[in-house]
Design a protein that fits this description.
Helix content: over 70%
Number of helices: 20
Largest sheet: none
Strand content: under 5%
Structural class: mainly alpha
Order of helices and strands: HHHHHHHHHHHHHHHHHHHH
């Protein structure tokens, strides 16, 4: 499981690295003005619906049911089930697409009402969203193919597919901007092209795996009806999460120009560890637990969840602390050039610090929710999410006036911690989550290693201040790289010295498949399992 997590995380890291190149180009060419705000809304809306109808809710319902078919009836029965679900998914997405394109101006009045004060920005948002919205249909099929491949332990293609999104957007930005009215149009067409590229890539990998899905007439077969029953609560839960994100977009549209962009750039950085760690863990843990539970081994499922919680904390605590300690040099070095000013960098850095408060919680949620979804319980997380959403929206409304977009980011972080607490409490109450001695022992040591890293970062930032402010870009980049690598080295060394991570754990990452596993207690001896 750890090797699969590292594989998914490594490919996600490549995608996010290319994504940073994309964002640096966007910042330089668009800055944080009205065209940028309009594009980011147009890009966010199909992604909201993607999380609602595709990846989030769909995976939660599809993976456990598909895994059950796989274990009980074999690959061919599971493939036929996936084909039946694809037919229903396509029908629903085509109806949604036709409706959205028809009512787009009124649609935008709901999701970015603050743009009505700037008719030019509002019209751009409508046009850009009409171009990007068909991406939702394409990426929904990508989500189905990816969930199917993950369930048969083929993780690489689905993890690599987002790389194509970034490459297409970069290519469109550089190649189409000269022939279109502005760079926003180029980016919108790049998003649409990336959906087609990802679909073709995943379909090719599914064919290699012998899991090609044909087009059949939509029918409510018993398998599809069971899937829809599980999907209903999952979609509602994803909808609650998206309500919080919609609230960001709606409220930010009333804030001064640039607020949407500040949220975007800060969230992009915050999404790096969330994507590399959280998405990787959630992608691997759900099918792993589903198979273990269907095979009658709940103890193994509990152990898998504990190890993912441990890995989540080990990697996100230092990441969150680093974002809070070094937000300003990170933002200035990465983005401050061209149309992106020092004021924009300062505002984005403060927003990043607010998001970083909740970074560990965002990832922990990915390790806790599979405890419900693997048992085909998609309703309970929805009920708990209601409380978190209420906290989120209330805090956003309370903080938007005094703190602007920083308040929106901080409210998101607080609500994530509320969600973590509720999920852990309910899993423990049902006997599905038992924090083992290893996790209890290592948690405080992770905090100690993180504190040492923060001290090193603050000291390094003071020493490197002249280089971080040097007018030569490569000098600033080198200084930032030295700061980040130094902090990483300090944390890694302290983690090993304090026992937050053991040498045996590191060796396990590279142990050959089939070799004798190490002691799950972390002591380093051979395990009887």
């Amino acid at each position: 499981m750890l090797r699969n997590i590292l594989s998914v995380g490594g490919l996600t890291l490549v995608s996010r690295a290319i994504g940073f190149v994309r964002d640096v180009l966007i910042a330089a060419m668009l800055g944080a003005g009205p065209v940028a705000d309009a594009f980011f809304v147009a890009f966010r809306l199909p992604n909201h619906f993607r999380a609602l109808f595709a990846e989030g809710a769909f995976n939660a319902a599809f993976v456990p049911v598909f895994s059950e078919r796989l274990v009980k009836d074999g690959r061919e029965a599971a493939r036929v089930f996936a084909q039946e679900v694809l037919a229903v998914l396509l029908l629903a997405q085509l109806v949604l697409l036709a409706l959205a394109l028809a009512v787009m101006p009124w649609f935008m009045l709901v999701f970015a009402p603050g743009f009505t004060g700037d008719p030019g920005k509002f019209e751009l948002a409508v046009v850009f969203t009409r171009i990007t919205f068909p991406y939702l249909l394409l990426i929904s099929v990508v989500a189905l193919l990816g969930a199917m491949l993950n369930s048969i332990k083929r993780f690489a293609a689905a993890a690599a597919a987002p790389i194509l999104l970034n490459l297409c957007m970069i290519g469109a930005l550089l190649g189409l901007t000269p022939v279109l009215p502005n760079a926003g149009y180029a980016l919108a067409w790049g998003v649409l092209a990336s959906g087609l590229a990802q679909l073709l890539y995943l379909a090719w990998d599914a064919r290699r795996a012998g899991m090609t899905l044909g087009l059949v007439w939509p029918r409510l077969t018993p398998g599809v009806r069971h899937f829809l029953r599980v999907l209903g609560p999952a979609a509602l839960g994803a909808g609650l999460v998206q309500i919080s994100l919609f609230a960001d977009t709606v409220i930010a549209s009333f804030l001064p120009t640039g607020s949407v962009s500040y949220l975007y750039y800060a969230d992009r950085l915050n999404q790096l560890p969330l994507g590399v760690i959280g998405i990787a863990i959630g992608t691997v843990l759900l099918p792993e637990m589903a198979r273990q539970l269907k095979s009658g081994d709940p103890a193994a499922a509990t152990d898998s969840q504990n190890r993912c919680l441990e890995l989540s904390l080990l990697l996100t605590l230092p990441a969150a602390a680093a974002f809070m300690a070094a937000a300003h040099p990170i933002m200035t070095v990465l983005f401050q050039r061209g149309a992106f000013t020092a004021t924009d960098a300062d505002a984005s850095a403060a927003t990043l610090m607010a998001y970083a408060v909740g970074l560990p919680a965002f990832v922990l949620v990915r390790s806790l929710v599979p405890g419900f979804h693997a048992r085909q319980d998609t309703a309970t997380p929805v009920k708990l999410a209601l409380v978190a959403v209420a906290v989120n929206i209330a805090l956003k409304l309370a903080l938007m006036a005094p703190l602007a977009q920083i308040g929106l980011a901080f409210a998101t972080s607080v609500s994530a911690w509320v969600n973590v607490g509720l999920l852990a409490w309910m899993l423990g109450r049902r006997g599905f989550l038992r924090i083992d001695d290893r996790l209890r022992r290592r948690g405080p040591r992770m905090l100690l290693a993180t504190a040492g890293m923060v001290a090193a970062l603050l000291g390094g930032e003071a020493v490197l201040a002249p280089a971080l402010g040097d007018p030569v870009l490569m000098v600033r980049v080198a200084a930032l790289a030295a700061l980040c690598l130094g902090g990483l080295g300090v944390f890694g060394g302290l983690a090993v010295v304090t026992g937050a991570v053991g040498r045996a754990d590191l060796a396990r990452c590279f142990r050959r498949p089939g070799a004798l596993p190490l002691d799950p207690t972390g002591a380093g001896g051979p395990s009887p399992r």
